[in-house]
Amino acid sequence: MKNHKKLGINGERVAFDGTVATKNGMPYTGLQGYDADFFVVSDVLAAKFYKRTFFKDITKLDESLKGTFKEFGNAMQSNPILSGMKAEVPSFRVYSTAEIDKKSGSQYYFLQSGKK
Fold it and tell me: Which residues contact 89 (CB under 8 A, 6 or more apart)?
């Protein structure tokens, strides 16, 4: 389900691939569909950002990653299993171990090294 700020035409929460009519109580005309959120959990990389930075985009540390992420996004969007995915370049946010532990919801780790 989409979060409680994104609602359907009757004020109901909608499925991840449902249509959003309002966001934060205002009419929503932005991209529809769903996206995937990617997190890089690394104390070393997180320390390279200013402490109060809210959105720690890994491309701010290495601009050359933008092309790779665009190719990755295109590959995901062209996969029929993922139909309904928004046509946008995926972002990879950097979190420290402590920051990710504070996030609500389930976190899935696909790759994890022994180093933080």
Answer: 66, 69, 70, 73
